[in-house]
Design a protein that fits this description.
This protein has about 375 residues and is mainly alpha-helical. The protein has 17 helices and 4 strands. The longest helix has 30 residues. The radius of gyration is 20 Å and the shape is globular.
Length: about 375
């Protein structure tokens, strides 16, 4: 196991996605991991325990106030799902589409971190929670706010404990939580629970915003069959990036932002192997299922194309899905892109030859599918 006299971000409590978990879920999560927490992170456990008690009380109040209205809310339009591996440009694409506040809605950082209380607490506690959200994402320096578009997977993780993201806190159990990437090997009861909570969260967002949802969570890339079963008219946008860049960026993530959420010291010796395995799991499922999507409900874009001409790509997405592209949205996109002019991506040194060869071998289907040079 990795050991160091100084652990990055050890005393930080910001970036903790568990902040909105209720006590019953928190206790179950600890029990699920045999209460194995590294002593270096006991303070995070204490903070989460205190917050879980508050979330439990507020959740009961919210349930009393809103459950009946949420249950009566229908998703009249199926969601748009942004698919793609982590570090492939999914966040950038999500932020672009989220600018269309006239036609679309999205879950924000506060809502996915407080999925059972946000209707009651967001107006009151968003300023406070902002202190627990880093101003910029440690892995790529992108701006992050409590109202930034965020992954719905975090909400599902807190409500069901059925998510790979729980390995961000308990890396020793990573292979256990990987079974929730595809959801294909769950028991009927487990799958029913996941579906119920997922649909409930989307109903809750729809109750609040009364607009179709645009959702981005990389694990959805491996769940096309299930998502189409739930939402036959759903639209899917898949974004891909050169596998070398994805691999290097994932390495960087676990050496930066990963340290904000650990409750166990990670074994860095197996980091590369875990990245390789996860990519295969995600894209084996994607390549096996993408043919299920009707052509008029699917759009695929490369990160390089989106980066080079984002407005053109957004226009093509809107044309494909027959959405109205307005002058207001165009102006909003240009303003957002102007605000990013000084943003610079991470730069990495070239991968060594052995790693390149291994990526070409283990991720060969991705290299071939999108014609990426080795």
């Amino acid at each position: 196991m990795f050991s160091s006299p100084s652990l990055p971000y050890q005393w930080h409590l910001d970036g903790n996605y568990l902040v909105g978990i209720t006590f019953d879920r928190w206790w179950s999560l600890l029990k699920q991991n045999h209460f194995h927490v590294s002593p270096a992170y006991w303070h995070r456990v204490a903070a989460t325990t205190v917050m879980s008690g508050l979330s439990t009380v507020l959740s009961s109040v919210e349930s009393w106030r809103y459950d009946r209205a949420i249950a009566a809310t229908e998703l009249t339009t199926d969601p748009i799902f942004i698919l793609g591996h982590w570090r492939s440009g999914t966040t950038f694409l999500h932020e672009l589409l989220a600018l269309d506040i006239e036609q679309l809605a999205y879950p924000n950082t506060f809502e996915v971190m407080s999925p059972q209380t946000f209707l009651s607490t967001e107006p009151l506690l968003s300023r406070w929670l902002a202190k627990l959200v880093p101003d910029r994402r440690p892995m790529d320096n992108m701006q992050l706010k409590v109202n930034s578009p965020q992954e719905d997977e975090f909400a599902i993780a807190l409500m069901t404990l059925q998510s790979y993201y729980l390995a961000l806190s308990f890396p020793d159990a990573e292979q256990h939580y990987e079974r929730y990437l595809t959801l294909e090997n769950l028991t009927p009861d487990e799958l029913q629970q996941w579906q119920h909570k997922f649909l409930w969260f989307l109903q809750k967002l729809t109750f609040k915003y009364q607009r179709p949802l645009v959702l981005k969570s990389p694990p959805h890339t491996a769940r096309i069959r299930l998502l189409l079963k739930l939402f036959p008219q759903a639209k899917f946008i898949h974004i891909h990036r050169h596998p070398y860049d994805v691999f290097q960026s994932m390495r960087h993530y676990f050496h930066t932002a990963g340290w904000l959420t650990y409750l166990q010291k990670p074994d860095l010796e197996v980091l590369d192997q875990a990245i390789l395995r996860r990519y295969r799991l995600l894209y084996d499922a994607y390549f096996a299922q993408r043919h299920l999507i009707p052509p008029d409900q699917f759009y695929e874009v490369s990160f390089s194309a989106l980066e080079q001409d984002p407005i053109s790509e957004v226009k093509q997405i809107y044309h494909q899905f027959q959405l109205s592209y307005s002058d207001t949205l165009n102006a909003r996109l240009r303003s957002y892109l102007d605000s990013r002019k000084n943003y610079r991506k991470n730069r990495f040194s070239a991968l060594d030859t052995k790693i390149q060869q291994r990526l070409q071998q283990e991720w060969h289907e991705a290299f071939a599918a999108w014609d990426y040079a080795s």
